[in-house]
Amino acid sequence: MKFDYVSKRTLLTVCLAFGITLFMFAFAGNRQSDMTAVFSSPADSKVIVIDPGHGGFDSGAVSPSGIREDELNLKVALKLEKYLSEHNATVILTRETNESLASRKSEDMRKRVQIIRDSNPDIVVSIHMNKFPQSQYFGAQTFYMEGSEEGKRLAQCIQTKLLENLIEGNKRQIKAASNLLILKAGSAPAVIVECGFLSNPREESLLITDEYQDKAAWSIFCGILEYFANEETFYWDRIQTPYTNLADKPLNSINCYNYQKV
Ligand SMILES: [Zn+2]
Questions:
Q1: What total number of domains does the chain contain?
Q2: Would residue 37 count as lying in a domain?
Q3: How far apart are CA 180 and CA 103, in angstroms?
Q4: Helices in the chain by DSSP H: which ranges?
Q5: CATH code for the domain of 155
Q6: Ligand 1 mean position to 255 CA, how many Å?
Q7: Is 38 inside any structural domain?
Q8: Are 69 and 117 found together in one domain?
Q9: Distance CA 204, CA 135 (A)
């Protein structure tokens, strides 16, 4: 009789497990179709040039411990490309490897400008890391072309997310610049994002990690989405994100910073 008891119990357990599995499959399938059906992104069909600064012979800033800016720029840029591509944006990178575009700086910059002009993009985002003689300065900062209202708005959208998501205590605000070639390369709104200071040991230790690079890319991505979303009234049902579920919220109420990676 004991055998019978065990067998019934086992059978019940198996049935229950099977039922739960079926339910989960049905639920997952339903969610998937919901997502496909309603998902739409402000970045959909936008053309975006991402410019990972420096490369090759031109390391950009080098930290006291020898970390090269150009390599970090590319890592953040590739992560940003991934997020934007997932939202059906057309992304053009000025470089996809750690090589420069030419053997001389002037020619390298000329080629970047040409890529921007040929792409006729909606926006241009150049990725950099900062450095200063004094090590206490830290924090990400976004620059835009002086006099460009749309560039300023894009910079503000991105800076807001950088301040929310990255290193605590950063008080930096967006800044206009008039002498940076990438910002005036084309007619599209353009920004230079300085993701942090390699001369600050604490920030450097963050910038070299995959997680912090991902947060930087994610912040820029969220800023770009807000920029495009505010061009028109946009309601967003679902966002596919590695972070918390941001479903069923109007875009303007989405706080990309309030995340936990899953
Ligand atoms: Zn740089």
A1: 2
A2: no
A3: 20
A4: 2-38, 69-86, 105-119, 149-165, 201-207, 210-229
A5: 3.40.630.40
A6: 29
A7: no
A8: yes
A9: 10
What pLDDT, in 10s, does the model give residues 88-142? 999 999 999 999 999 999 999 999 999 999 999 999 999 999 999 999 999 999 9
Residue 259 belongs to a domain: no
What distance, in Å, lies between the first and last C-alpha atoms of the chain?
47
Identity of residue 190: A
Ligand 1 centroid, distance to 229 Cα (angstroms) = 29
| Tokens matching residue 120 | 């006729």
15 and 114 in one domain?
no
Structural domain that includes position 88: 47-253
pTM recorded for the entire structure: 0.77
Same domain, 77 and 145: yes
Distance 168 CA to ligand 1 centre (A): 22
Q: CA neighbours within 13 Å on the CB side: how many for 27?
A: 6
Spacing, Cα 51 to ligand 1 middle (Å): 11
